[in-house]
Design brief:
The complex is a heterodimer. By secondary structure, chain A is α+β, with helices and mostly antiparallel strands. Chain A has eleven helices and twelve strands. The mean pLDDT of chain B is 94.
């Protein structure tokens, strides 16, 4: 990545004004994954001084500042207490402490990285994003959106509710990106299933969720059927980490295990 | 760009490019204990403390350190020397290439987690690769060092 100029924003409006001035201006977060990009930034805008690194309770949600580091989130008792701590588990498996001291939750979300271990649990935890101009939108809508208007991610809201959760990341070694990752939640007997690193960005298995949530009794047969439906709606691919076939088979196994696990709680 | 940063307690001013990484700035200014290994955040040998927290300097833009405090192993010399005695007793030292980053990481661990478990020590050291010794001797040395440090 090449950066021609650097601007440390003194306010959100200041950051936004610089951002919209030039299509090649860009917000930089922790910078942990910047080496993966070859893009050229005219002016890099740093939000470090704007107090966007707090994790607090607000409006029956856990409100996480976009500049909170992954280590901040992983170490938060509030986040740990939500959904059996699946977001903390997912973060904990990302490389080492040092990179997690650098990478921010906002940078990890806004990049829509296919390899993300964070997006998958966030999808099953009722996550809302707050932008400076666009306001609040759900994470699902953000992932579907093709909106390219310049904006600044401010906060990530996780709805505080009694949720059971499951997360599994399959990797070749502890420092690598996921071959595939699976997150499942159950809130008020409603299941959510997400699979990421397929290798494209995480998605919810909407058809499988509709089927499961329409069933009165959840038993082995119903879970097997839900896995079958999920596998029909997900598209898997091949890259240097794994083949399409291997990914899909691994995902099916861990969706099944995850559903069984959260169903018992 | 002129950047003012405190390194090992001393105020320094560097003239850097906006896309320059801290690792390159430090090495260009003779902080050679900060090693250049993988240059992509995987090996850990470029670790420094950024306001007391371990970070890979190969992935931290120097401009982001303006007004902050950076610590290299020279900044924790007494602690590093003490840890090296434990490494020596356990045979956890060979080429020494990973030692500065290992010492900084252990220093940060000591200040962040009191009485860490074996799992917490191992977790905290993930990303600090050693090609010589294997990790068992280092783990034993660090554990003993931390236990004695509590006394």
């Amino acid at each position: 990545m090449r950066i021609n100029n650097y601007h440390k924003a003194v306010s959100l409006e200041d950051a936004y004004e610089v951002l919209k001035k030039n299509g090649q201006n860009s917000i930089i977060a922790g910078g942990a994954w910047m080496r993966l990009s070859s893009k050229e930034i005219e002016t890099a805008i740093d939000l470090s001084n704007l107090g966007l690194d707090q994790i607090v309770l607000a409006d029956n949600s856990i409100k996480i500042g976009a500049m909170a580091t992954l280590r901040d989130v992983e170490s938060s008792d509030l986040v740990q207490a939500l959904g059996d701590g699946i977001l903390c588990q997912a973060i904990h498996k990302i490389m080492g402490v040092s990179i997690r001291n650098l990478a921010t939750i906002g940078g990890s979300v806004i990049g829509k990285f296919g390899f993300s271990d964070i997006m998958t649990p966030l999808l099953v935890l009722e996550t809302t994003l707050e932008f400076y101009k666009k306001g609040k939108i759900s994470l699902e809508d953000f992932l579907e959106s093709k909106d390219r208007e310049p904006d600044i991610l401010l906060h990530i809201y996780l709805k505080k509710q009694d949720t059971s959760g499951y997360f599994y990341k399959m990797t070749k070694n502890s420092l690598d990106f996921a071959v595939v990752n699976v997150a499942i939640s159950k809130t008020n007997n409603q299941f959510k299933i997400a699979v990421g690193a397929r290798p494209s960005i995480a998605h919810l298995a909407q058809n499988a969720m509709n089927y499961l949530n329409g069933e009165k009794v959840i038993n082995d047969e119903v879970i097997s059927k839900a896995v079958e439906i999920a596998m029909q709606e997900f598209k898997f691919g091949t890259n240097s980490r794994s083949s399409e076939e291997y990914r899909s088979q691994i995902a099916a196994v861990y969706i099944n295990r995850g559903l069984n696990e959260v169903n018992k709680r | 760009m002129k950047i003012k940063v405190k390194i090992n307690g001393y105020n320094k001013t560097f003239d850097v490019n906006p896309d320059e990484y801290l690792l390159d700035t430090l090495r260009a200014n003779d902080y050679l204990s900060v090693k250049k290994g993988c240059d992509n955040s995987s090996c850990g040998v470029c670790t420094v403390l950024f306001d007391g927290k371990p970070v890979p300097s190969c992935s931290l833009l120097t401009v982001k350190t303006e007004g902050h405090e950076i610590t290299t192993v020279e900044g924790i010399q007494k602690d590093a020397e003490r840890l090296s005695e434990y490494f020596g007793h356990q045979g956890a030292d060979q080429c020494g290439y990973c030692n500065p980053s290992m010492a900084l990481t252990v220093y940060a661990l000591k200040h962040e987690i009191k009485n860490p478990t074996d799992a917490e020590i191992n977790d905290y050291l993930v990303g600090n690769l050693c090609r010589c010794t294997g990790y068992q001797s280092q783990h034993l040395a660090i554990k003993k060092y931390l236990e004695d440090d509590q006394l």
